[in-house]
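1st attempt posting a full record on here, be nice pls
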Amino acid sequence: MKESLIKDQLAWNKFFEESSKRETYPPKKIELFNRLMAYTNNFFVVAAIGAISPGYLMIVTKELIPSISMVENKHIDELKWLIEVISKAIRKTYNKETIIFEHGNCACLGGLDRAHLHIMTIDESIDDNLVKECINKTLISRKAGISSVEINGNKLENIHDIAEIMNSSGSNSYKVNGKQLVYEDICSDFDINNWPISTKKHVQNKGQYVYFKTNSPSTSFLTNKNFQTQLGRQIVFEIEKETNSDIKKINKEILKNNIYANIWKWQEFSFKENMLKTMNDLILALLDIKNDKFKFFTFEKK
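the predicted structure (as tokens):
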């Protein structure tokens, strides 16, 4: 299967069709569309590519819309119910906390983006200070808020050029345009408690946003700042590096062979073994979920 030629990599009909062909659950081998785990009337749940650690899921809209903020009001109760029960299933299975995030209207999958919400795990003992440190570390590494640098009469606007100049010890004479953003600059652009409704008008005007929800209001944010994609994944990876010995070891081994590796990018590291483990680990907790109103179904077998 040539994944690069598929425009909608989160197409509901493809997931349902391909997962229906599975002879075993979990499948023996991860493929693009055989990762379906559960679904309701308007949403479905898949094991997410790039599972840094087991327990990484995505909730996806069946309807092709650019962000969760465009979900019809009549379906929001269904969405919130699904987020709650899936998060509870993850916490029950792994004894970990969940972080939920969305890059709204980002067009991050080959230019055609179907709304999807990420759910990842972190150790339940992690405190707010560490989470905030990892958020700031990620923002600084991305030079978030810096629009350009000027050096030797040249104005550089590409993020990689900006980072190269600002991180180079040999470049000490340049002008920075913009302001380096930190957590306090991004935590209150919208009413996070009213997400996804609070971002609807912004998206209707072609705006982007990032929704990042932990179990604490002191480390959650809903911002209209225009970041590159996968900000949430990178933040979670930074947290895991600090608290998860397995991730710390993997990070060290990978960087030993390639110092330019971006382990948090799903395009570079899919972690298929963790995806299979996620599908196997969570099925019992998912089977316990019952709801006639939203028609919750597990998809553990043909």
